[in-house]
Automatic annotation (TrEMBL):
InterPro entries (UniProt xref): Inositol_monophosphatase-like (IPR000760)
Alphabetical UniProt keywords: Magnesium, Metal-binding
Protein family: Belongs to the inositol monophosphatase superfamily.
Cofactor: Mg(2+)
Key word ATP-binding present: no
GO biological process, one term: signal transduction
Gene Ontology MF terms in the entry: inositol monophosphate 1-phosphatase activity; metal ion binding
Annotated Pfam families: Inositol_P
Name of this protein: Putative inositol monophosphatase
Binding site for Mg(2+): E72, D95, I97, D98, D224
Length: 280
């Protein structure tokens, strides 16, 4: 299936409607009973995540009846869903609230992400900000853009390449195995500035809009990265696994680094993954 600009806007409208109906009314109004741990205290789910996923999944199914919807919360209950992305003629990979820890804390840094895939290839990405009410879109081969609630559109373009020592980087090392975690942490001083927003939705939006140079992740659940990876790519960037391999939403290991171009990617990869004390 080939998605059009109008298809993208329809999907963006689905995300926006669900966000205003199910997410924002619960923002800063959650009770303790409405927040639950999943795999750990760092991995939580709320009533808002579940309600938004139900609403978005139902709307996507109505608009695209042939599509398989793979939502984060549904996949937590059915671990076979992720494997179906590779062969589905059309699938939607959905994160109803990315940055749930921020949402629970009352911080306005969370987003709604959906990627459309065709037999495992990401062909559309949409990342919606419920607070600002705007959506970043990407169509494979057709570029990336930001669209505001009133219809104003602005094309997205990654930052220009700079030396590693001048890069503004979003780097999450929390899920790296040892000794790689200690290696990367020891090399953080090689980049200009490093931070982490606890929200891939906003981090990918920042990188695609040119507000930072580098993204570095290890944990690769498809709802966290499929839409953002395409957004960054269509904004002109280069993203690949640590070994240089091409990213696919069915790859759950191997990490991912996103940089303005392939040369910058190589320099950043070597600087962060090289041993402390070695030249970068």
């Amino acid at each position: 299936m080939r998605f059009t600009y109008d298809d993208a806007l329809r999907i963006g409208d689905i995300l926006a409607r669900a966000a205003q109906a199910e997410i924002m009314p619960r923002f800063r109004r959650l009770t303790d009973r409405q927040v639950r741990e999943k795999s750990s205290r760092f991995d939580v789910v709320t009533n808002a995540d579940e309600a938004a996923e139900r609403a978005i999944a139902a709307s996507l199914a109505a608009a695209f009846p042939a599509g398989l919807v793979v939502g984060e919360e549904a996949a937590a209950k059915d671990d076979t869903l992720i494997g179906k992305i590779a062969t589905a003629d059309l699938a939607f990979v959905l994160d109803p609230i990315d940055g749930t820890k921020n949402f629970v804390a009352g911080l306005p840094l969370f987003g709604v992400m959906v990627a459309a895939t065709v037999r495992g290839e990401v062909v559309l990405g949409a990342v919606h900000d419920p607070v600002r009410r705007d959506t970043a879109f990407a169509l494979r081969g057709e570029g990336a853009w930001m669209q505001g609630e009133g219809g104003a559109r602005a094309d997205l373009k990654v930052a220009s390449a700079v030396p590693v020592a001048e890069m503004e980087a979003i780097i999450g090392t929390n899920f790296l195995p040892e000794p790689l975690r200690s290696t990367v942490n020891g090399n953080l001083s090689r980049v200009g500035v490093s931070s982490w927003l606890r929200c891939a939705a906003h981090e990918y939006r920042m990188a695609a809009a040119g507000h930072c140079h580098l993204l570095f992740y290890n944990k690769l659940m498809p709802w966290d990265h499929a839409a953002g990876w395409l957004l960054h790519r269509e904004a002109g960037g280069h993203g690949a696994h640590f070994d240089g391999g091409a990213y696919r939403p069915t790859h759950l290991t191997g990490g991912i680094i996103c940089a303005p171009d392939k040369a910058s990617w190589r320099l950043a990869r070597d600087a962060l993954l090289g041993r402390v004390g070695q030249p970068s």
